[in-house]
Structures are given as C-alpha cells and as structure tokens.
Specification:
The chain is an alpha/beta fold. The protein has helices at about 10-20, 45, 70-75, 95-105, 125-135, 175-185, 195-210, 210-220, 235-245, 255-265, 280-290; strands at about 25-30, 55-60, 80-85, 115-120, 140, 155-160, 160-165. Guanosine-5',3'-tetraphosphate binds near residues 88 and 89.
C-alpha cells in the first residue's frame, strides 16, 4: 500500500519564503545523498521563484560512492543548478558551498553586494548539523536585527556571504509510491504514517536487487553466497528475526522487531553505504507516476 502522508500545510513556510526570497541570490536545497531524487521537494523551485539552486547531497559518507557521481551529473545537467556532495559534519564544508554559489551568481560578492543565500531541506537531511558546523566557523546571528524574525537564522559565512535558514518546515512531497517508501526508510516522514514491516520489506526487496553482499555481511544468515537474493522478502525478514533473536513467547518470530532492526541498520549505515535510487530508476518512477 502506498504511503500517504499529509503532515500539515506549509502556509507559514510559503509566506516566510515569499517575503525573504526577493533578497536571495541562490537557494541551497539540502538532499539526502541516499535518496537524492525522493528527498527533493519539487515545490521548492516554485516557492523560490526558480532562483539558481545549489543541490547539496548530504550524508555522502553513508551513500553508495558509485551512485553519488551519477546524481551529481544528473543535477548538474540542469541549467542554473550546481550540485555538490558533502558530509555535514566534515570540518570545512563552507568553502565548497561558497564556491558553488559564486558560480551561480558571479555578479554578487564584495561588501557592497554580499551574496545572499537561503538554505532549505526536508526534515532529517542534516540541515541542523550542517548549520551547526557552519556556525562554529562563523558567527551565527539570530534575533534582534531588523527584518530577522525569531524563526529565521542568518549565518555570516564570509564578510560578503550571508546564509539564511528557511523559516518554518519544508515537508517532503511524496510524488510516487517508491519515493514514499524511501523517505520512510530514511526517517524523513512521521513514524505514524507508515507500517514499519511494510517499509522494511520494501527496503529488503531493494537491497536484494542491488546490495546482496551487504545484506549477507550484516546478517550472516548462513546461506550460500548470493542465495539471499533468491528468497522472498518475507523469508529474509523472518530469517533476520531468527538470527537476531527477535522471537516472541511461543517461539513465533517478531517481525515488527526485525523490521525495526533492518531500518535502524540502514539509517545508521551499519549495513554499509547504500543509495536507494539511481537517476534512471527515479525517472522511470516519475514517468509512471505521471501516466497514472
Ligand atoms: P535536520 O535538521 O535536517 O532535520 O537533520 P539533523 O541535522 O538533525 O540530522 C538528522 C540526522 O542525520 C542526525 O542523526 C545527524 O547526526 C545525521 N546527519 C546529519 N548530517 C549527516 C551526514 O552528513 N552524515 C551522516 N552520516 N549523518 C548525518 P540522528 O541519529 O538523528 O541524531 P544524532 O544521534 O546525531 O544526535
């Protein structure tokens, strides 16, 4: 069953972005490098008046290193868009962000024309972590300056470079069922919006197709190499439950517990570096979604 999630309206966000956007040169959209298509909110371009955009594929340390370059190329092929990959806790992410923004708005720079940037992202992509890292390197300014509400935060990354945090919440937008599952697996949507067992089975289904060695290495199910790829998703979840001692009174397997384990292993990257979609797959899902 497809995941439906209606987390609430973005009236305040829309209004606040609308008020700020006229003074913004570049919009940074933070994405989860493990789902760089599904974690993007297609409404953002509309909300920001199609300003030049830097797509930051964050959490690259836990994404598949063979797939991140495909996504960077995919985003870089768009006009007025630069894509970079980073790890929000890396010591000095600012330089690359600044360079990417200057490429998109070369007319801005210097004290008279400081670069003005808005940073956005759906929950859990690492925006707070990145802002914390950037703030340590600069002076985070909040509060009492004219025009800066409590909901906004302005960080001075360089004397001529201001970064504004998005006020309000940019909720993810589930455009196709596949994206819903990937967003749920990543932790970007509310826990009450999905069934963990269902999402874990979808996750296992994808891992069976693309990451069998990682599944085998993590769960050591005692099967011949590659055999896990031929099992049903439910059989794999059950085998994980038995292997990890998720057994209820009476000896029945606790599939709910096993589902939580698999999801946590993905989220914390104990399973290994994984990306849940390629640009080609994402394009196919979107085309199918558009036909329905
Ligand atoms: P948000 O503001 O966009 O909602 O996200 P936030 O910074 O709170 O980050 C969400 C989770 O992702 C946090 O983990 C954070 O540590 C982790 N994270 C952020 N950036 C990166 C990154 O580049 N690489 C990796 N591997 N993880 C990243 P958490 O488990 O929810 O919290 P905590 O245990 O770190 O406190």
């Amino acid at each position: 069953m497809a995941i439906q999630w209606f987390p609430g309206h973005m009236h305040l966000t829309r209004k606040a972005i609308g008020e700020r956007i006229k003074d913004i040169d570049v919009v940074i959209e933070l994405l989860d490098a493990r789902l760089p298509g599904s974690s993007s909110n297609p409404l953002l371009a509309e909300l920001t008046g199609h300003k030049p955009a830097v797509k930051v594929l964050n959490k690259q340390d836990v994404a598949d290193p063979a797939r991140t370059p495909l996504w960077l190329d995919w985003y870089n092929a768009r006009s007025e868009t630069r894509a970079i990959a980073l790890d929000a806790s890396e010591p000095a992410p600012a330089r690359r962000l600044i360079d990417a923004c200057h490429q998109l708005a070369p007319q801005r720079g210097g004290m008279a024309k400081p670069m003005r940037v808005l940073i956005c992202g759906i929950p859990n992509v690492g925006k707070s972590t990145l802002i914390n890292t950037l703030s340590k390197k600069s002076q985070a300014k909040t509060g009492d300056e004219a025009g800066i509400t409590k909901l906004e935060q302005r960080i001075t990354l360089a004397d001529d470079f201001y970064l504004w945090d998005t006020p309000g919440m940019l909720w993810p937008r589930i455009t196709v069922p596949e994206s819903g599952f990937k967003l749920a697996a990543s932790g970007a949507i509310g826990r009450n919006a999905y069934d963990e067992e269902e999402v874990a089975l979808e996750l296992i289904g994808y891992l069976k197709q693309h990451y069998v060695p990682l599944l085998e290495a993590r769960y050591k199910l005692g099967l011949p190499p590659g055999a896990v790829g031929d099992m049903q998703d439910e059989e794999v979840l059950e085998a994980v439950a038995r292997k990890r001692g998720a057994i209820m009174a009476g000896g029945r397997v606790n599939l709910q517990k096993a589902a939580e384990l698999v999801m946590t292993d993905f989220r914390t990257a104990i399973l290994g570096p994984i990306t849940l979609e390629t640009p080609a797959e994402f394009e196919v899902w979107q085309a199918e979604g558009a036909r329905q």
